[in-house]
Hints:
Number of strands: 6
Strand content: 15-25%
Distance between the termini: 10 Å
Helix content: 25-40%
Shape: globular
Amino acid sequence: MKIAIIYATKYGCTKKCVEILKSYLQSDVKVFSAKNSKIDVSQYDTILIGGSVYMGKIQKEITRFCKHNLKQLLKKRVGLFVCCYTPNGINGFFETLFPLELLNHAFYVTCVGGEMNYDKMNFLYRRLFQSLKKIDGFNEGFTEPKILEEEIKALAEKSLK
């Protein structure tokens, strides 16, 4: 079985998750950045697509890749994942990130957690999070996000079936 992982990352967390995912896959796996416009999905049996979510949006490269390759993707086994703080089970969340047709076709859709890498954030994002942490009550419900390796493993296991 040939598997392609297509991803986009802003601060490196998605790339880290892709490396973990690849380590769980005991198959012929090729990893592509979604910035690469010459990805031939026809060569692969399973396509795993993921990116990070910021301000409620996934990277433009992922959106563009999904739209450009939608017809071919609908003929393949497709798994979708996102890196973000938002947990699974939020109604309508994934519908804002991926084309609905692709989302309904996917064999597995998940959030694999994430990380807040303050050192890599630009000044505006860093300042935003510093401001949020100063708001009364914000810190009570806030916990630093973490990568959910068990979700990555579940995606890998479903991919190999």
